[in-house]
Amino acid sequence: MSELGGDQVEGRRAVLELLTVGGRTVRKILLAEDQDPSPQLDRIEELASRMRVPVETVPRTRLDAQARTEAPQGVIALARPIEPVALEALCIPSKKGGQPFLLVAAGITDPRNLGALLRSAECAGVTGVVLPRHRSARLSPTVTKTAAGAIEHLSFAVVGGIPAALSVLTDLGVWSIGLAGEADQSLYDLPLGDGPLAVVVGSEEKGLAPLVRRRCDAVVSIPQHGALPSLNVGVAGAVALFEVARQRQRPA
């Protein structure tokens, strides 16, 4: 069994992206009976037919019984799990010379937070994700549905410990920045446009663990102007990732 998961994909956008990318074997698709016409469902059936993936139409009650999310949107795909890659593989520039742009999720346990962050990461151009082996959400149906297909475009490394992984990244020339609401330095004061980079986000409750914090090359905060003390981890991560993306844009 894969330590990442991803073998049950629920939701129309996530299943459609699974089939469109075609990066892993899809064993079967379940569709609920009596659904209203939908371009997404039509496309799912079209791609499944082209790829010779069996499609089974089942009563809504059966589909909902197999679902592991609250709203599977009438479709479930059973697929080969996502297989992790070596951490070192995430640090290799792309064939076009693109620099590694990594997300290190250091202990996010809420599946919806992780799914939303993975969706933001893919949209911001992240090339790889690092997850700890313990005390972290996996690519469950809730994560994959919330990520809306992003997992099909990302590479994942699973590591025994985040501090040791950050040391490896440093040795490989990847600069790591951690997010902490109480940090004195602002995210917006850092030059993030060049070179291999990893954005490190901590757990929902405790943020960055002390040793993780010490292993980061810089720890920064996102300036806030309201009364609440901090941002949701998924939102904070998205803000940081898109700031990197903004700085990495080049004039046409």
What report would you give on this structure?
By secondary structure, this protein is an alpha/beta fold. It folds into two domains: 8-79, 2-Layer Sandwich (60s Ribosomal Protein L30, Chain: A); 87-248, Alpha/beta knot. The chain has eight helices and ten strands. The strands form two sheets. It has a six-stranded parallel sheet, sandwiched between helices. The chain has a four-stranded mixed sheet with strand order 1-4-2-3. Helix 1 (12-21) runs parallel beside helix 2 and helix 4 (111-124) runs parallel beside helix 8 (233-248). The termini are far apart.
Short account of what is shown:
By secondary structure, this protein is an alpha/beta fold. It is 33% helix and 19% strand.
Could you give the topology of this structure?
Elements: E1 8-10, H1 12-21, E2 26-32, H2 39-50, E3 55-58, H3 60-66, E4 75-79, E5 101-105, H4 111-124, E6 128-132, H5 141-147, E7 155-159, H6 162-171, E8 175-179, E9 197-201, H7 210-215, E10 218-220, H8 233-248
Helix pairs in contact: 1-2, 1-5, 4-5, 4-8
